Amino acid sequence: MKNICVLVSGGGTNLQALIDAEKSGVIKNGKITCVISSKEGVYALERAKQNGIPTRVMPRKDYADVATYTKAVTDALLEEKADLIVYAGFMTILDEQIVKAFPYKMINIHPALIPSFCGKGYYGLHVHEAVLQRGVKISGATVHFVTEVCDGGPIILQGTVPVLDDDTPEVLQKRIMENVEWKLLPQAVSLFCEDKIELVGERTYIKK
Ligand code: GAR
Question: Does domain 1-102 have CATH number 3.90.550.10?
Fold first, then answer.
C-alpha cells in the first residue's frame, strides 16, 4: 500500500475527489496519509480533518525564499514516508531539491491541455481567462509528472471539454473540474499506486 501525500493551497475539490475515490475503491493500493497546505485556513484542510487525514500547514510566507521553503516541504514529505506526492491545486513553485528527493514520484493536475496555457503565471482562473481570450474551441486538464520544468514533465493523462461561446472563466473552470479533473486525477493516482505507468524518455505508457 503506497502512502499518498497531497499538497494543497485552496478549496481542495481535487483533494475531495481523491478522498471519495479512496473510499469507493477507485484508488487501488494507495492511501492518503497526509495533506500539506501552503496556506492557513483554506477549506482543503477542513476536508482532510473531516476525513481523519493528518494535516500540516506550512505557509509559504513564513519562509525566506524558495530554497528554504522547498527544503522544509521535502523534509516533511520524507518524514511522512511519502511514496506518491500529488499537487492538487498547489499554487507554490518549489525548486529542484524536491524533484531530486522524489524523482517521478510527484504528479500535478493542470487545468489546461499542456503544452498550451501552462508554465509560470498559468494557474487557477488565469488559465481559463487565457483560454477564452485566445479563442480555442477545446480545453481540458492534464495530469503529469512534476520535473524541474514548470508544467513540463511527462504527461500521464489528458481529458477534454468544449469551450462554449458564452463561457466565463468560472463556468469553464467548473466544466473542466467536473468532467475531467475530478475523474482523471484519482485515475492517475491509482495507476501510479498499481505501478501501471511506464516511463520511456519523455513519454508514458499505461500498462494493461
Ligand atoms: C484546479 O483547477 C487545479 O487544476 C488548478 O487549481 C484548481 C484548484 O482547485 N491547479 C493549477 O492551476 C496548478 N497550476 P481545488 O483546490 O478545488 O482542487
Answer: no
Residues of the chain with CATH 3.40.50.170: 1-102, 107-208
For the segment 18-28, what is each residue's pLDDT rounded down to a tens digit? Answer: 999 999 999 99
Q: What is the dihedral of CA 40, 41, 44, 50, to 10 degrees?
A: 120
CA distance 65 to 76: 17
Pick the CATH number of 107-208 from 3.30.930.10, 3.40.50.170, 3.40.50.10840, 3.40.980.10: 3.40.50.170
164-200 confidence digits (pLDDT tens): 999 999 999 999 999 999 999 999 999 999 999 999 9
What is the position in ligand 1's atom list of the atom closest to the CA of 124? 12
Q: How far is the CA of 88 from the centre of ligand 1 (A)?
A: 6
Q: Output the pLDDT for position 176.
A: 98
Distance from Cα 84 to the centre of ligand 1, integer Å: 18
Minimal-distance CA residue to ligand 1 atom 3: 89
Residues 40, 59: contact at Cβ < 8 Å?
yes
Looking from the CA of residue 173, the nearest atom of ligand 1 is 2
Peptide bond into 54 cis (omega under 30): no
C-alpha cell at 173: 473552470
Ligand 1 atom nearest the C-alpha of 13 is: 17
Active site residues: 110
Who contacts 200 (Cβ-Cβ below 8 Å, separation ≥6)?
Answer: none
Indicate the pTM of the whole model.
0.97
